[in-house]
Amino acid sequence: MIGSEIPVLAVLCGAEPPPDMAAVEAGAVVRYTDASGLPEALAGADALFVYDFLSTAVPKAWAAADRLRWLHIASAGVDPVLFPELRESDVVLTNSRGVFDDAIAEYVLGVVLAFAKDFARSLDLQRATTWRHRESERIAGREVLVVGTGPIGRATARLLRAAGMRVSGAGRRARTGDPDFGVVHESAELPRYLGEFDYVVALAPLTDRTKGMFDAAAFAAMKPSARFVNVGRGELVVTSELVAALRAGEIAGAALDVFETEPLPADSPLWTMPDVLVSPHMSGDFGGWRRTLVEVFTANFRRWSAGEPLQNVVDKRLGYVPSQPQGAAG
């Protein structure tokens, strides 16, 4: 905060403002705005709360940010606001790390069970009033690779291990003895070891290093019986090459919650492909998640107002909060 002045906070929220902002409104001049009004709201603002975390409006309005000190985004991923001008500025960037960890982990376990127990086909047969006995798969003992070793990846690893699965990780550095993954492989070498796994879960942050990491070479390296789950970012995947791999039988199925283009276009073959589960970017959205996001922001706003270190400070070079978060004053 700047001296003893009442700070000015711009809130990018679209048509629906965030709930439960009374505590913040008591300590700041709050300007709620949609994308079209963002340049005007940013002029003279000390902080920006990007509640509409899918919006791409911030880079276009950045020139109006003449005294901004802090930007908080209501998501774990920061790619919509991590543009060159922000990287090079002194503006502190924080995210909402921790809100969606357990919900996304539960989603991943759910789709793993859906594949193993063939729930989609059971529902189709039920609707057709067809009694067809089949055998299902066990998930205990199956090998899973979680690509992304941040908090969501760790929550996912713990839950899958509790279900009896054998979980490894993939991250920036290869290592052993990790408390949640045991072995962590180097993500830059994905095709070398993808063939060892029955399930591959994409949870990496979107950076220049990870964009398009799941391409034709990656899918060709997987087991023909493997299932691919993407709950990270749509741009981690080259969608056309995923479709080709599914059609060629290079992998057995995919559960996709995020896509390169959202909403997923109506003419995408993914909608109707067998053994593909599509959900509309909702894997982490549990009842009350919007209020929880505001609670996270409000707690950080209080720290910022008091000149205390912020939580969930993003390393703008890496594109995510480091494993040992570093506080920063606003």
UniProtKB/TrEMBL annotation:
Gene Ontology terms for molecular function: NAD binding; oxidoreductase activity, acting on the CH-OH group of donors, NAD or NADP as acceptor
Origin species: Amycolatopsis jiangsuensis
Domain D-isomer specific 2-hydroxyacid dehydrogenase catalytic residues, every copy: 35-314
Domain annotation D-isomer specific 2-hydroxyacid dehydrogenase NAD-binding: ranges: 110-283
InterPro entries given in the database record: D-isomer_2_OHA_DH_cat_dom, D-isomer_DH_CS, D-isomer_DH_NAD-bd, NAD(P)-bd_dom_sf
Pfam family, one: 2-Hacid_dh
Family named by the database record: Belongs to the D-isomer specific 2-hydroxyacid dehydrogenase family.
Keyword NAD: yes
Top-level taxon: Bacteria
Record has NAD as a keyword: yes
Sorted UniProt keywords: NAD, Oxidoreductase
Name of the protein in question: Phosphoglycerate dehydrogenase-like enzyme
